[in-house]
Amino acid sequence: MINVVSPFTPVNVTGDGPSETVNVEQKLGIDEVSKKEKLYLDGLYASLKKIFKSSADVKASEIVQYVGKFVAADGTSPYQDISTQPVVADKIIEMSDTEKANEKLYLDGLYASLQKLFKSSPGVKTDEIIQHVAKFVAADGTSPYKSIRTHTVTIAKIMEMFKADGKEGEDFYKTLNQCVGYSVVSNGMLDKFIGDMLLRSEEEEPEAW
What is the reported pTM? Predict the structure, then answer.
């Protein structure tokens, strides 16, 4: 019989022979435990980002309580034990630093890419710029701006970079400004569409098969 208290704590295994204490890593394998830990951290990180976005004045004590009460996708509370929280805090900070570093690399890459576009196509239109941003592939092979929701903030940051380089008077800068308005409208339409679909799914009866 195996009693698992937490995915990362030793467990007592009782069989026909004498009892022995083993780590879950020995039963699940280190890779499986690492995957589960990553899922927990990713979930907590995404959850904390929402908290910081909705409330800029959140207190340290509230964060500690939130981490302790965090419920993962599998229904467990992996950080309920306060002894886990200092390590978790370090990892969350590391994830945040990595995300910020990646964001700068992505923006620098997109900026360089747009510079080439504006040089080769001086009369580029708003929809072409939007498509270019959405299809941009970073050095690590990812497409960080594929989602419509990223376009407004991303293009606004790109405009700041061009402004800092003294390009505010260029024609493409005006087109970028139009792109921001275009992406805001696109976001609004997407939100309305999702809202309408959710409302419709709640109101309509399921079709009979």
Answer: 0.56
